[in-house]
Amino acid sequence: MRASLIQIAVDEGESVESRRRRVAGMVRDQAGADLVVLPELWTTGAFAYEEFGTAAEPLDGPTYEAMAKAASDAGVWLHAGSLPERDPDGPLYNTSLVFSPSGDLAAAYRKIHRFGFDKGEAVLMGAGREPVTVRLPQTVLGVATCYDLRFPELFRALVDAGAETLVIPAGWPERRRAHWTLLAQARAVENQAFVLACGTAGTHARVPQAGHSIVVDPWGEVLAEAGPGEEVLTVDFDPAKVATTREQFPALKDRVLGLAPPEPPLSHRTPRSPEQVR
Question: Which of 2, 60, 122, 158 keeps 20 to 30 A from 79, CA to CA?
Answer without folding.
Answer: 122
